[in-house]
Write the structure tokens for this entry.
Amino acid sequence: MNPRTWRRGKSHLMVGLMMIAVIIAILPLLFILGSLIVKGASSLSVAFFTNTPVPAGETGGGVLHAIVGTLIIVGIASAIGVPVGIAAGLYCAEYPGSKLAWVTRFVSDVMNGTPSIVVGVFAWTFIVATQKHFSGLAGSVALAILMVPMVTRTTEELIKLVPGSLREAALALGYSRWRTSLTIVLRTALPGIVTGALLSVARAAGETAPLLFTALGSQYLSFNPNQPMAALPLVVFTYASGPYEEWHQFAWATALVLILVVFVLSMAARFATRQRFSSGG
């Protein structure tokens, strides 16, 4: 066989295998999204987003309490987890040889693989058991613990991509080390860091197990994070395990809303990445 024909045949074979792998990877996602749209879209309405749940056996109601609870819990978790993760990642990247950076990197890798239910039990032990009541704040702390390792490792890897010539130029102009790190290095890597932060927020918004041990859930609309609060993942769990068919429909619709929230955050992350490359970074 002609060598050129043989190489071309191997190239076509590998491209074909990769295309099959891509199809296998996206099929489950398409099936999940299709199932949510088919079974949940019919229950979506204006009342679904503006009303609170009705007593069992009655028709109607909505998940306004869960939407508000999710925004509060994830918002507080982001306010705690994102700055801590960025600061830890910046330190690990700027001082890679220190023992503290090695320990931080090792702990982050371990925490990235830790099941979320373990974090939920930890938060229950040190917050819920201490305060003697469930609360949205405890749920926020649990989600922040899940967000920190992901933001830390993402920040570190992105800061490593910043050219060393930028640091040298800033130091040559008289900038101090800390000012160079914050105003030059961190600013250059910021679009990618925002991407990592948004992806960690999307992951936290979909977590259920930590909230079962901390926020617990509620049937009422609440703005007080020191009290039990509802969240979209908790509503999906509650309605899906309930005995009524209408609850099951609500579970599908709530899961669809949750997927849409994650989709919006992912698109925001891609937009931030596109801005980075379009600016020549």
In short: Residues 92 and 98 are 8 Å apart (CA to CA). The chain is about 75% helix and 0% strand.
